[in-house]
Records
---
Amino acid sequence: MRTGSGNDRYARQVIFPKIGMEGQSRLKAGRVTLVGCGALGTVIANTLARSGVGFLRIIDRDYVEWNNLQRQVLFDESDAREGRPKAVAAAERLRTINSDIEIEPVIADVHVGNIETLAEGASLILDGTDNFETRYLINDVAVKHGISWVYGACVASEGMVMPIVPNRTPCLRCIFDAPPPAGTSPTCDTAGVIAPIVQIVAALQAAEAMKILVGAMDDVRPRLTQISAWDGEFSTFDMAPALDGGGCACCRDRQFVYLDGKATGRTAALCGRNAVQVRPASDTKLDLEALGDRVGSVSNGRVQVNRYLLRFDVDSYGITVFRDGRAIIKGASSPDEGKSVYAKYIGN
Ligand SMILES: [Zn+2]
């Protein structure tokens, strides 16, 4: 019998010269905050835990559902049957994979009020979220406290990755000053997502994470990588000019509008109606007809549109969306639930 603590465990990565023994101890000393443990998050956590990253804080607000199993690699049928919280199910699985590292599951929605605490002491933040609101919050906290983070996103068969090292590479707001208007981008719930793009994006995020954790900073390039898994195409864009341009309110002027809560405060429970109102993350004018087409498939065609609003039913929710991007989600019993339904079907 061999025990799990043998030196063999990391042998193949220690002989890789960019890591070596020194890099391996740096990985062991690494403290990672992973925001979101769904598709991208489970693949990232799986890779980093196996690589021997010493501390993983895994934050997720959701529970495992059957439609997660197609791409969320740490979960199995029993997790879906029991509807176990993703953070907990992931942590338990990871402990059977590597008992030498520390894993802290946190069942929570990341928001203005808790993100600085959750990021405290982190050497790195990994983006496993499915919404722009949280990403802009991560970007603010990362730039404010000088913590590197790795952006990742995917939908359908397309994805994007970008490492962000404050003051060395452009931040998210250097590239995209504000989140895309609500209802303008497809989500996994309207456009679907295939597992290969999840694994490619998360693998590239994990590679950036390993470089940052071992201190190979010259290998962390200011670069946005765009991938189409279906077409087998990669495109990389040099983002260095975005930093040199220097017009960023976040990294240059240190205005953390998302963290200050000025750009949030988006939800309100509608008392006595079992409904929650959710406002979009930025001002918008929605194309309700286009949104109606996108949600048509998930609501079995039960979509009504008039000049003021769009109505559709999905699962047990009755969703009403207005042209200004505001939505009332009937059947949502808390602001967090309302926000999560909004992100799923309308966008961010
Ligand atoms: Zn910036």
Note: The pocket of zinc ion is lined by residues 170-171, 173-174, 248, 250-251 (CB under 6 Å).
---
Amino acid sequence: MNTILIYPQLEFIGTQIPTPPYSILFIADYLIKRNVNVKIFDLRFDSLHQVKNAISDIEPEYIGISVMTGPQIYYALKICESIKKEFKKIKIVWGGIHSTILPTQTLQNKLIDFVIRGEGEKSYHELVSGKNKSQINGLSLKNGAKIFHNPDRALLKSSELNELSIPWDLINPRRYLKSGNFNMITSRGCPFKCAFCYNALFNNVWRGWTAEKCIEEFNKIFKFGVKKITFYDDYFFANPNRIKILFQYFKEKDIIWKAELRVDQMNYSLAKEAKEHGCSNMYFGAESGSQRVLNILNKNISIKDIIKSAEITNKLDIIAEYSWMIGIPGETKKDIRKTISLIKNVREINPESEFSIKILFPYPQTLIYEQAIKSGFTPPSNLVSWSNIRREHAPDYLRHKNFLEMISITSAIIGKKVFESNNVPIFKLIKHPANFRWKNEVFSAGFENLFFKIFRKVIEKVISKRDSIEYDPFSRKIISIKKN
Ligand code: B12
Ligand code: SF4
């Protein structure tokens, strides 16, 4: 049995360190262990030509594509179109978060034959190994215009997750390594119920690699030259015993790391322990400066918690990165002003902290979705419209669209220290008007909005080509820019 798994391009990576395509790597590991021959292509690095050669070579019945909401859909559709044109018989399976939340709409697209909802390991294996399709949990399929959804598949148990490893020999891991930086994920799920988050409904149980399993996997990546790890777990600190062992290990190996922590779980002794064991940055989902809005978001945190996190990180010299949100159904301009004021307060308490302000886009099946619909939100009606979503674009149902977009754009410019790099002239040019706006809270109109769009195009051309920019998210410095 042969199959191919594809991770499509993402639109604009900028200074981000590319994350390995863990979604398909985990599935590949599950398949390999069951004697399926798997090839993986990450189209951020590989070409469609290579994919097609592999299809001609191994003639798989199915190919699987991993898709997140947003521009990745656009690239995924282009890939499917091109493959279907040349290989008429091949069956295309979409998996990942977008198709999980919208399986019917996804299957309405003629290029897509199957959707696997939720975690893909078992369902994809059953599909490629020829199990009766009506008995594959998590599978959505079509017959003409009729679409069927088999029952949901249960989440993998912790013990099953611990049997899975990352099959690094299927890809070139050094592509994801920049100045010793590497992104890693060691667990799945989160038990909290934030109203905007996918996890609240689909992935509500935390399951993680044990400390021993993590160490086994870390030992592999250290062979590639990894020195600094960014953990992308939604709830890295979930298990205190696991964390205790990992802390010791990080210290022994002299590893610098960062991870997300909920502000309500932040306390001085945990942060001090973390700092003493290599943690130099922490990121927090603070979301809003209005307690009323935090309640709408079901975030279960208080303004006090946010302030406390800034005080502790400042005291311990931990770089804090805050993520904020605006454009929430029920939010007023006054609430937004409160958010801006709290961000300023946090920056005064911890001047080294960073922040970004995103505009909420309500995803189907999240708790906030129904509220957004009541407020007049019309969700995109097909895959192509879903591909046009950008985090700095306000959805049409929101009032004060320009106001929201200007805040988000301004935050993208002044919230990150990277824009203080004087070796990038364009950064200097846009920083000053953004500073003026932020200081005076003038967001109603502005040329930076237009400028930013042009800037995005320029920066995409100049630095988004892979390997052209070397940025260290820990020191927050651009290390080098290669001229293309
Ligand atoms: C790392 C990450 C990124 C990376 C990209 C990932 C990469 N590999 O390079 C970056 C930083 C670029 C990113 C960007 C964005 N991200 Co992101 N990201 C993540 C994060 C933290 C980890 C992803 C991961 O590796 N997970 C681990 C794997 C194992 O899980 P998985 O991807 O869900 O895969 C499983 C199943 O979904 C399924 N599956 C997945 N693919 C396939 C394919 C097939 C064929 C099958 C059968 C099954 C299948 O099986 C897998 C194994 O069980 C997740 C949160 C999370 N913890 O998952 C958010 C998350 C995926 N991101 C999210 C969002 C909102 C975004 C942005 C839109 C944010 C923004 N506002 O800009 C952008 C979109 C970027 C774009 N241009 O399109 C949301 C997804 C929402 C959605 N509807 O898609 C998540 C869930 C965060 C959240 N809790 O809301 N992201
Ligand atoms: S936003 Fe964070 S804390 Fe809330 S449910 Fe999602 S992952 Fe968990």
Note: The chain has two domains: 2-149, 178-481.
